[in-house]
Here is the input.
Amino acid sequence: MYEVSPRVKTQFEKMRQLDQVKRLLDFIKADERKSIDELKELVLVEAPTHHEEARAAVIAEKFRALGLEDVHTGRGGNVIGLRRGAGNGPKVLIEGHLDTVFPFGSVKGVEERDGFLYAPGIGDDTRALAMMLSLLRGLNATGIRTAGDVYFVATTREEGTGALGGMKDFLEEHPEIEISLDIDSNDMSRIIFEATLCQTWEFTFRGQGGHAWSAFGTVAQPVHAAARAVAKIASYEAPAQPKTTFAVSNFHAGNISGVHAIASEASFIVNFRSNGADEFAREKQFIFDAVETAAREESEKWGKNTIEVSSRCICDIPGGAQDAHSPLVEAAWLSLSSLDVSPWLEQGGSTNANIAISKGVPALCMGRAWAPDENSKRVHNHSLDEKLHIVNAHKPVQHIAQMLLMAAGLDGEFGSIVKG
Ligand SMILES: [Zn+2]
Here is the structure.
């Protein structure tokens, strides 16, 4: 049984009693339809990773209209706006990512039926942007003044080859951030507080190549070297705990006109992840050793010509751990419970929170939807038939509101739960 410490519990209960907070939660509930309609507009402004400008401009305009100060485009295209606090609390970031995995032309419209919205990117992570706007309206309408400053940020390049780039840029530009609240998961009941280490590398094996018959025996074969490496990697025994994974993809070599050739080049990509830093280091070493050994074995077999290997890092997502009883995690547990959602602690995570956690900044990744059953959980992220469950769409917004107040503190009432 997960027990919340008395300190966090006391502050949370105090917060829930406050009239201002009750009005905020009521406002957010009443704002639900407006927020969903705004989401339907936002998703039409497409934002493939590395091409977020149009959507960024729309968000910047909305941030300004909602009274954020100093709204501007930061490093790497992030849209940044400041909601100043009373000056006696930590600097808090709340963010969702602008980009989606879909190329321009993927979104044909938005359909609403049976408690879902249908459109590519409707959830991941467009909903987070609409949630932040609804939260801002609520804070403004109820005149809430946080103790600490809050940065509202729409980040770029979270997905794929963006590799959390927008978040990296923001935290480099703003090392003063002390708490990070991220919104990027399907199911609000999951508390994501860990950060899985993840890297993706491409290995390229090069040799002289030649004719499959006449050059045979005179050259080492790059494709065979690459295949040896993959076979070795495939044999790796990854532990179940901490969860550790690996997958080879994009094995490329040769071409169709060269079916009777010893191709001069072969390459593959491997992605590997772990929730444990030691295990991650061990796995990475194994993969690099496998590549080196494979190239050497293939070279030695022929004794002539040698295989050269080069490596290129495609993606490097740092990670780390936080205590399951850190104040943010405990606060999230109470906040979800107060909204009649049964919380559970997710193992690992690969979200923008990783960047904060790897820098030692307390962080949490929160969800975009109320998802009480299997049907509402199966939303096909990163697929053209992506959908978003919008029944009780105000609940995740209420959750981020409560978390923001617990993190930033409420002027005149209580301080930050993280810093207390
Ligand atoms: Zn996402």
